[in-house]
């Protein structure tokens, strides 16, 4: 290897990305977004608040006890619906994937549930249960569960059937085969389903609160919109979106990295 080719060879050995590899792109994207936001605020003032006005309102919200009360209520609703929808959806997905009879029964229902617009669940839940906590919880769970089931079902169908044959040859108990043979194959799909379930849960929770709840982040956003306080709308939405993104990446992202770290 000559002296001229040595630097090139060393460059090829370097990883394509580093700790700050995406920083310039992030700065450019945020800067462009702020410029477009400012231009939009100037063009349609006062309906779009400026970034500076929104930042002031964000700081005011962070110091408001009422905001944090709404935040805790919405977060509790999101986590409850997320947990139930993920567990129920995963169980139904595994059942459909393993049993042809279960698939024959659930497949039409699953296809119908996936085709129904999410606001329909919310409206019918409010009509059936009123505007209390039960309506929101039922609407969120019913709306999210089919998506989780569909993701898990597809992964079960794509499993290595040779391992099923091995489990039968060695007469593994059904519970042991499920734990040691099937579930490890489903880990990537279960993590994907969990992240999708969480993302859909917090988005729908805001809609549920805006339509039929007297409190929570969604109700606060709708009340500010009704009074044409657009700075409050933007500030509340930005804080909640950032918090949910941090929660998803900080908790679910770390769990995913821990469970799938063997992939490199």
Automatic annotation (TrEMBL):
InterPro entries, per the entry: MetI-like, MetI-like_sf
Entry membrane topology: Multi-pass membrane protein
PROSITE patterns in alphabetical order: ABC_TM1
Keywords (A to Z) from UniProt: Cell membrane, Membrane, Transmembrane, Transmembrane helix, Transport
Subcellular location: Cell membrane
GO biological process: transmembrane transport
Domain ABC transmembrane type-1: residue ranges: 71-251
Transmembrane segments: 21-44, 75-97, 109-128, 134-152
UniProt xrefs under SUPFAM superfamilies: MetI-like (SSF161098)
Pfam families listed in its UniProt record: BPD_transp_1
Primary residence: membrane
GO terms under cellular component: plasma membrane
Family designation: Belongs to the binding-protein-dependent transport system permease family.
Protein name: ABC transporter permease subunit
Source organism of this protein record: Mangrovicoccus algicola
């Amino acid at each position: 290897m000559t002296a001229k080719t040595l630097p090139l060879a060393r460059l090829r050995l370097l990883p394509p990305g580093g700790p700050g590899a995406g920083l310039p792109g992030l700065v450019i994207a945020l800067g462009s977004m702020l410029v477009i936001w400012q231009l939009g605020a100037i063009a349609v003032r006062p309906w779009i608040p400026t970034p500076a006005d929104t930042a002031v309102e964000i700081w005011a919200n962070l110091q408001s006890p009422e905001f944090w009360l709404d935040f805790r209520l919405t977060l509790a609703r999101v986590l409850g619906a997320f947990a139930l929808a993920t567990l129920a959806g995963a169980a139904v997905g595994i059942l459909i994937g393993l049993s042809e009879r279960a698939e024959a029964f659930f497949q039409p229902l699953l296809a119908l549930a996936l085709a129904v617009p999410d606001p329909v669940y919310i409206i019918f839940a409010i009509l059936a249960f009123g505007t209390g906590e039960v309506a929101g919880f039922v609407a969120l769970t019913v709306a999210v569960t089919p998506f989780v089931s569909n993701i898990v079902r597809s992964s079960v169908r794509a499993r290595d059937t040779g391992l099923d044959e091995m489990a039968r040859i060695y007469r593994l108990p059904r519970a042991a085969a499920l734990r040691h043979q099937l579930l490890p194959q489903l880990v990537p799909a279960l993590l994907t389903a969990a992240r999708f379930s969480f993302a859909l849960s917090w988005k729908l929770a805001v809609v549920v609160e805006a339509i039929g709840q007297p409190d929570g982040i969604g109700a606060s956003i709708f009340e500010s919109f009704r009074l044409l306080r657009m700075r409050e709308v933007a500030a509340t939405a930005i804080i909640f979106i950032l918090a949910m993104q941090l929660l998803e990446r900080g908790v679910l992202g770390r769990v995913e990295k821990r469970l799938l770290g063997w992939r490199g």
